[in-house]
Amino acid sequence: MARSKQQHLDPTAAPKRILSLDGGGIRGILTLEYLSAIENMLKQRSGRQDFVLSEYFDLIGGTSTGSIIAAGLACGMSVDQLKRLYRELGNSIFVNKFWKKGILTPKFASEPVQEALDAQLGAETTLDSDRIRVHKVTAAIDCGTAVNPLTIEAQVQSGLVFGLSAALFGRITFNDGRVEQSNFTDYPVLRINEMPETSVHIVASNASPTGVGECGTPPIAPAVANALFQLTGKRLRKLPFDLGAS
Question: Does residue 65 contact residue 25 with C-beta atoms inside 8 Å?
Fold first, then answer.
Protein backbone atom coordinates (compact mmCIF):
# COMPACT_ATOMS: atom_id res chain seq x y z
CA MET A 1 0.00 0.00 0.00
CA ALA A 2 2.82 2.39 0.80
CA ARG A 3 4.76 3.67 -2.20
CA SER A 4 8.38 4.68 -2.55
CA LYS A 5 9.27 8.19 -3.69
CA GLN A 6 10.28 6.76 -7.06
CA GLN A 7 6.82 5.22 -7.45
CA HIS A 8 5.16 8.49 -6.41
CA LEU A 9 7.01 10.38 -9.16
CA ASP A 10 6.79 7.73 -11.88
CA PRO A 11 4.52 9.25 -14.59
CA THR A 12 3.66 5.78 -15.91
CA ALA A 13 2.29 4.55 -12.58
CA ALA A 14 -1.46 5.12 -12.63
CA PRO A 15 -3.89 5.96 -11.22
CA LYS A 16 -2.32 8.65 -9.04
CA ARG A 17 -3.51 9.22 -5.49
CA ILE A 18 -4.09 12.97 -5.16
CA LEU A 19 -4.85 14.87 -1.95
CA SER A 20 -6.10 18.44 -2.51
CA LEU A 21 -6.75 20.70 0.49
CA ASP A 22 -8.66 23.98 0.63
CA GLY A 23 -7.91 26.88 2.98
CA GLY A 24 -10.13 28.26 5.70
CA GLY A 25 -7.84 29.74 8.35
CA ILE A 26 -8.18 28.12 11.74
CA ARG A 27 -10.91 25.89 10.29
CA GLY A 28 -8.02 23.86 8.94
CA ILE A 29 -8.15 22.09 12.31
CA LEU A 30 -11.37 20.46 11.08
CA THR A 31 -9.56 19.31 7.94
CA LEU A 32 -6.92 17.78 10.16
CA GLU A 33 -9.57 15.80 12.03
CA TYR A 34 -10.71 14.22 8.75
CA LEU A 35 -7.11 13.57 7.75
CA SER A 36 -6.46 12.00 11.14
CA ALA A 37 -9.28 9.50 10.51
CA ILE A 38 -7.80 8.63 7.11
CA GLU A 39 -4.30 8.27 8.55
CA ASN A 40 -5.55 6.00 11.36
CA MET A 41 -7.37 3.82 8.82
CA LEU A 42 -4.18 3.48 6.76
CA LYS A 43 -2.21 2.64 9.90
CA GLN A 44 -4.60 -0.22 10.60
CA ARG A 45 -4.43 -1.47 7.01
CA SER A 46 -0.63 -1.36 6.90
CA GLY A 47 -0.10 -2.64 10.43
CA ARG A 48 2.32 0.26 11.03
CA GLN A 49 1.77 2.91 13.67
CA ASP A 50 4.37 5.18 12.04
CA PHE A 51 2.53 5.27 8.69
CA VAL A 52 2.07 8.82 7.36
CA LEU A 53 -0.08 10.16 4.54
CA SER A 54 2.90 11.09 2.35
CA GLU A 55 3.57 7.37 1.93
CA TYR A 56 0.11 6.83 0.46
CA PHE A 57 -0.66 9.92 -1.64
CA ASP A 58 1.37 10.60 -4.78
CA LEU A 59 0.54 14.29 -5.04
CA ILE A 60 -0.35 16.61 -2.15
CA GLY A 61 -1.31 20.27 -2.65
CA GLY A 62 -3.44 22.98 -1.14
CA THR A 63 -4.55 26.60 -1.26
CA SER A 64 -4.28 29.27 1.41
CA THR A 65 -3.86 27.62 4.82
CA GLY A 66 -4.47 24.26 3.14
CA SER A 67 -1.01 24.70 1.62
CA ILE A 68 0.45 24.79 5.15
CA ILE A 69 -1.03 21.37 5.84
CA ALA A 70 0.01 20.11 2.39
CA ALA A 71 3.62 21.26 2.85
CA GLY A 72 3.86 19.53 6.22
CA LEU A 73 2.33 16.30 4.93
CA ALA A 74 4.55 16.30 1.83
CA CYS A 75 7.63 16.59 4.06
CA GLY A 76 6.57 13.54 6.07
CA MET A 77 4.88 15.14 9.07
CA SER A 78 2.13 13.16 10.75
CA VAL A 79 -1.36 14.61 11.23
CA ASP A 80 -0.79 14.74 15.00
CA GLN A 81 2.33 16.87 14.46
CA LEU A 82 0.34 19.25 12.27
CA LYS A 83 -2.44 19.46 14.84
CA ARG A 84 0.06 20.58 17.46
CA LEU A 85 1.51 23.13 15.03
CA TYR A 86 -1.95 24.54 14.28
CA ARG A 87 -2.81 24.89 17.94
CA GLU A 88 0.49 26.62 18.67
CA LEU A 89 -0.06 29.08 15.83
CA GLY A 90 -3.76 29.68 16.42
CA ASN A 91 -3.49 32.70 18.72
CA SER A 92 -0.70 34.43 16.81
CA ILE A 93 -1.88 33.93 13.23
CA PHE A 94 -5.62 33.39 12.94
CA VAL A 95 -6.81 36.65 14.50
CA ASN A 96 -10.14 38.26 13.72
CA LYS A 97 -8.87 41.77 12.92
CA PHE A 98 -8.57 41.70 9.14
CA TRP A 99 -11.93 43.42 8.61
CA LYS A 100 -10.62 46.59 10.25
CA LYS A 101 -8.00 46.95 7.49
CA GLY A 102 -10.26 46.30 4.53
CA ILE A 103 -11.98 43.40 2.83
CA LEU A 104 -8.99 42.71 0.56
CA THR A 105 -6.53 42.39 3.43
CA PRO A 106 -5.20 38.83 4.00
CA LYS A 107 -7.06 36.98 6.71
CA PHE A 108 -3.89 35.99 8.55
CA ALA A 109 -0.39 37.37 8.91
CA SER A 110 2.13 35.68 6.64
CA GLU A 111 5.23 36.28 8.80
CA PRO A 112 4.34 33.89 11.66
CA VAL A 113 3.33 31.25 9.10
CA GLN A 114 6.66 31.60 7.31
CA GLU A 115 8.60 31.42 10.57
CA ALA A 116 6.69 28.32 11.66
CA LEU A 117 7.25 26.52 8.35
CA ASP A 118 10.93 27.46 8.36
CA ALA A 119 11.26 26.04 11.86
CA GLN A 120 9.39 22.82 11.05
CA LEU A 121 10.57 22.10 7.51
CA GLY A 122 13.77 24.10 7.15
CA ALA A 123 14.11 27.55 5.64
CA GLU A 124 15.87 26.19 2.55
CA THR A 125 13.51 23.28 1.87
CA THR A 126 12.28 23.00 -1.71
CA LEU A 127 9.11 21.04 -2.35
CA ASP A 128 9.22 19.89 -5.96
CA SER A 129 10.63 16.58 -7.13
CA ASP A 130 13.14 13.80 -6.55
CA ARG A 131 15.93 16.12 -7.66
CA ILE A 132 18.43 17.06 -4.95
CA ARG A 133 19.19 20.78 -4.69
CA VAL A 134 21.62 22.31 -2.20
CA HIS A 135 20.61 25.89 -1.39
CA LYS A 136 23.15 27.03 1.17
CA VAL A 137 26.57 25.91 2.43
CA THR A 138 28.48 27.27 5.43
CA ALA A 139 32.15 26.28 5.64
CA ALA A 140 34.91 26.92 8.16
CA ILE A 141 38.65 26.47 7.66
CA ASP A 142 41.58 26.56 10.09
CA CYS A 143 44.69 26.95 7.95
CA GLY A 144 46.95 28.97 10.23
CA THR A 145 47.65 32.61 9.43
CA ALA A 146 45.58 33.68 6.44
CA VAL A 147 48.03 35.38 4.06
CA ASN A 148 45.42 35.94 1.33
CA PRO A 149 41.89 35.50 2.72
CA LEU A 150 40.17 36.04 -0.65
CA THR A 151 42.23 33.28 -2.27
CA ILE A 152 41.41 30.95 0.63
CA GLU A 153 37.71 31.72 0.26
CA ALA A 154 37.81 31.11 -3.49
CA GLN A 155 39.72 27.85 -3.00
CA VAL A 156 37.16 26.52 -0.53
CA GLN A 157 34.29 27.54 -2.81
CA SER A 158 35.86 25.83 -5.82
CA GLY A 159 36.39 22.70 -3.74
CA LEU A 160 32.71 22.75 -2.81
CA VAL A 161 31.76 22.95 -6.49
CA PHE A 162 34.02 20.01 -7.30
CA GLY A 163 32.62 17.93 -4.44
CA LEU A 164 28.98 18.78 -5.15
CA SER A 165 29.43 17.92 -8.82
CA ALA A 166 30.64 14.45 -7.82
CA ALA A 167 27.94 14.02 -5.18
CA LEU A 168 25.03 15.03 -7.42
CA PHE A 169 26.08 14.24 -10.99
CA GLY A 170 29.33 12.27 -11.11
CA ARG A 171 28.08 9.00 -12.57
CA ILE A 172 30.43 6.94 -14.77
CA THR A 173 28.97 3.94 -16.63
CA PHE A 174 30.60 1.32 -18.86
CA ASN A 175 29.36 -0.49 -21.93
CA ASP A 176 31.41 -3.25 -23.56
CA GLY A 177 34.41 -2.19 -21.51
CA ARG A 178 34.26 1.45 -22.56
CA VAL A 179 33.25 4.55 -20.62
CA GLU A 180 29.95 5.87 -22.00
CA GLN A 181 30.37 9.49 -20.89
CA SER A 182 32.43 11.63 -23.26
CA ASN A 183 31.87 15.31 -22.40
CA PHE A 184 29.81 17.72 -20.34
CA THR A 185 26.70 16.82 -22.32
CA ASP A 186 26.48 13.46 -20.56
CA TYR A 187 28.76 14.13 -17.57
CA PRO A 188 27.35 17.34 -16.08
CA VAL A 189 29.02 19.51 -13.47
CA LEU A 190 27.44 22.08 -11.16
CA ARG A 191 26.23 25.09 -13.17
CA ILE A 192 26.08 28.72 -12.10
CA ASN A 193 22.33 28.61 -11.49
CA GLU A 194 22.78 25.49 -9.32
CA MET A 195 25.54 26.96 -7.17
CA PRO A 196 24.41 27.27 -3.54
CA GLU A 197 24.84 30.41 -1.50
CA THR A 198 28.15 29.90 0.31
CA SER A 199 29.84 31.55 3.27
CA VAL A 200 33.42 30.72 4.20
CA HIS A 201 34.68 31.47 7.70
CA ILE A 202 38.45 31.56 8.26
CA VAL A 203 39.41 30.70 11.84
CA ALA A 204 41.65 33.40 13.30
CA SER A 205 45.05 31.94 14.13
CA ASN A 206 48.60 32.90 14.98
CA ALA A 207 49.95 29.59 13.71
CA SER A 208 52.22 29.43 10.70
CA PRO A 209 50.51 29.56 7.29
CA THR A 210 49.76 26.19 5.71
CA GLY A 211 48.51 25.03 2.33
CA VAL A 212 44.80 25.18 1.55
CA GLY A 213 44.48 22.69 -1.31
CA GLU A 214 41.00 21.28 -1.99
CA CYS A 215 39.80 21.01 1.60
CA GLY A 216 36.26 21.95 0.60
CA THR A 217 35.87 18.80 -1.51
CA PRO A 218 35.90 15.85 0.96
CA PRO A 219 33.33 17.03 3.55
CA ILE A 220 30.57 18.33 1.27
CA ALA A 221 29.14 14.96 0.20
CA PRO A 222 28.87 13.66 3.80
CA ALA A 223 27.29 16.98 4.84
CA VAL A 224 24.67 16.71 2.10
CA ALA A 225 24.05 13.05 2.98
CA ASN A 226 23.40 13.98 6.62
CA ALA A 227 21.05 16.80 5.57
CA LEU A 228 19.12 14.39 3.35
CA PHE A 229 18.85 11.91 6.21
CA GLN A 230 17.40 14.61 8.46
CA LEU A 231 14.88 15.54 5.77
CA THR A 232 13.90 12.13 4.42
CA GLY A 233 15.09 9.58 7.00
CA LYS A 234 16.98 7.79 4.22
CA ARG A 235 20.71 7.02 4.34
CA LEU A 236 22.48 7.44 0.99
CA ARG A 237 25.89 5.75 0.84
CA LYS A 238 26.71 5.76 -2.87
CA LEU A 239 27.72 8.58 -5.21
CA PRO A 240 26.11 10.22 -7.02
CA PHE A 241 23.17 10.51 -4.63
CA ASP A 242 19.85 9.17 -5.89
CA LEU A 243 16.75 9.59 -3.73
CA GLY A 244 14.75 7.37 -6.07
CA ALA A 245 17.05 4.37 -5.63
CA SER A 246 15.64 1.55 -3.53
Answer: yes
CA dist 45 → 2, 5, 17, 42 (Å) = 10, 20, 16, 5
CA distance 75 to 90: 21
Among residues 161, 148, 160, the alpha carbon closest in space to that of 210 is found at 148
191-239 pLDDT, tens digit each: 988 899 999 999 999 999 988 988 999 999 999 999 888 877 788 889 9
Residue 154 CB-half CA count within 13 A: 4
Q: By C-alpha distance, which of 222, 213, 171, 220 is closest to 196?
A: 220
Note the pTM of the prediction, 2 decimals: 0.54
* Torsion angle defined by CA atoms of residues 197, 74, 225 and 6, in that order, rounded to the nearest 10 degrees: -120
In order, the DSSP letters of 190-230 are --GGGPPEEEEEEPP--SPP---TTTTHHHHHHHHHHHHHH
Report the pLDDT value the prediction gives residue 104, as an integer from 0 to 100: 46
- 235/238 Cα distance (integer angstroms): 9
